[in-house]
Write a structure and sequence with these properties.
Blueprint: H1 2-12, H2 20-40, H3 44-56, E1 62-63, E2 70-71, H4 73-85, H5 101-115, H6 119-140, H7 143-146, H8 151-167, H9 172-185, H10 197-217, H11 233-238, H12 247-250, H13 274-287, E3 294-300, H14 303-308, H15 318-321, H16 325-335, H17 345-348, H18 351-357, E4 360-363, E5 376-382, E6 387-392, H19 405-416, H20 422-433, H21 442-450
Parallel strand pairs: 3-4
Antiparallel strand pairs: 1-2, 3-5, 5-6
Helix pairs in contact: 1-9, 2-4, 2-6, 2-19, 3-4, 4-5, 4-10, 5-6, 5-8, 5-10, 6-8, 8-9, 8-10, 9-10, 13-16, 16-18, 19-20, 20-21
Length: 452
């Protein structure tokens, strides 16, 4: 049975059975996620969820990033999950079909702080949670998105539940129940992309996983096979009969955290846009294109890339701009960069931006393909008759064209500068890069919670 097989993997996998490279990959995800969370703590949705969680109260168990206070473990996971996804600058996995770290890391940090576990245990819990979610994503496929579900909010509930079950040291039966509870708690709608509810999905998933594991630990009940069957999670969300037997060949044998790995975003916008972003920034740099030079910008992409995220064609807010291919192309020509400062309501509504947005069109050529890993190409047609094009096979941040450790550190500093002093950011960065050596994470959480 699928639920039991995943539960046994969660409970019975020993640290020495996990490849060393997987621990390195997990550490990179902690660096990336903590950085974007520090930046996200200063966004409006970060401030709102922090204020609400503080009003609700709770035991002083785990810190709210940038909030300056502690609350109960589930509430801290909720707040930090929202905060971490506020910038939409966090990592992504094409096997997980999700942004894995923005639920896994907050759930793990909240439990780790209360239970005073080591950094190495936090990393192994991340890996196990990641593989549980990624294996389900591998089985279920992309039909999620066509049906309007936000796969991150669903699969992250399972991944966070897996990680929490491991930290709480649940047995196989309890872990099966935790997965069943998490399966019923999971949910999220794509229609909310471009609003504050999208990051609420990831915070809710982090809390879902913790609540599921805590309830199972107390003897709460759920169906033991909630992931499979005619009314189980896999079929209900994907709408098809899933080949659940695939787990025999992948779970604990093929480590998806290593292959195809995790993508780390070079730009604070939807990952579906990244190839076109690389392309237009290269054209802007090479030809010094000005807005007044442009008669048309054609983005040649897979239709799935628009369907999965870049679907807001006429954004009106900075948050909507993160999910608009048209806006990213326009602002890249105007500013020559796609960084945190580009995603504001003021920039989205600037007259020259609105004018250039109308000149962007999207096409789906057969030579591009229809999948998730397809190349992307930008063609700029200029008023002087020039046709300038650039094609990107693997965009920056993929396994084939990765962000280096130094680039991840620079990204961390850039995001953390919104919340921490330079000295505090450097200490936090040092601690997270040495997470596997920490006996507990209290000093790291003190830094990021109280923003010193």
């Amino acid at each position: 049975m699928t639920t039991e097989r995943i539960a046994r993997f969660i409970v019975e996998t020993k640290d020495d059975q996990i490849p060393n490279e997987a621990f390195k990959a997990a550490k990179r995800s902690f660096v990336d996620c903590l950085g974007v969370a520090l930046g996200g703590s200063k966004q409006p949705e970060g401030a709102m969820i922090t204020e609400l969680v503080k009003e609700l109260g709770g035991n002083d168990e785990a810190g709210v990033i940038g909030g300056g206070f502690k609350t109960s473990v589930p509430q801290a996971a909720l707040a930090n999950g929202v905060i971490a996804h506020a910038l939409d600058y966090d990592d992504i996995s094409t096997k997980f079909l999700a942004h894995p770290s923005v639920s896994l890391v907050p759930a793990i940090l909240a439990l780790a702080e209360k239970r005073r576990i080591s950094g190495k245990e936090a990393l192994s819990s991340y890996i196990i949670g990641f593989e549980a979610g990624a294996n389900l994503g591998h089985i279920m496929g992309m039909t999620f998105f066509g049906r309007g579900w936000h796969a991150t909010s669903i699969l992250n509930s399972i991944g966070a539940g897996a990680a929490a079950s491991r930290i709480l040291r649940l047995n196989v039966q309890e872990t099966r129940i935790a997965l069943g509870i998490a399966a019923s708690l999971a949910g999220g709608l794509k229609i909310n992309f471009g609003t504050m509810t999208k990051p609420l999905h990831t915070g809710n998933a982090a809390r879902n996983g913790i609540l599921a594991a805590m309830l199972a630990h107390k003897g709460f009940t759920a169906h033991e096979s909630a992931l499979e069957g005619p009314n189980g999670l896999c079929q209900l969300y994907s709408g098809i009969e899933c080949d659940l037997e695939q787990l025999k060949e992948t779970l604990g044998k093929t480590w998806f955290i290593l292959s195809p790995g995790i993508k780390y975003k070079p730009y604070p916008c939807c990952a579906s846009i990244a190839g076109c972003a690389d392309a237009i920034l290269e054209l802007k740099k090479k030809y010094a294109i000005l807005p007044e030079d442009v008669s048309e910008i054609e983005c040649r992409v897979s239709p799935l890339m628009i369907e999965t995220g870049a679907s807001i064609h006429s954004p009106r807010t900075g948050q909507e701009g993160r999910f608009s291919l048209e806006y990213d192309m326009a602002i890249a020509i105007i500013d020559g960069e796609l960084s945190l400062k580009q995603y504001t309501d003021e920039k989205v509504n600037a007259p020259e931006v609105r004018d250039l947005i109308r000149k962007v069109k999207t096409t789906f050529p057969k030579d591009i393909g229809i999948g998730m890993e397809e190349p992307q190409e930008v063609v700029i047609r200029c008023k002087d008759g020039r046709h300038l094009s650039h094609r990107v096979e693997k965009h920056k941040g993929t396994a084939e064209n990765p962000l280096t450790d130094d680039e991840l550190s620079s990204k961390f500093r850039d995001c953390a500068s919104l919340a921490l002093s330079a000295e505090g950011a450097e200490e936090a960065l040092r601690l997270v890069w040495h997470l596997d050596e920490l006996k507990e994470i209290s000093r790291l959480m003190e830094l990021v919670t109280f923003a010193r």
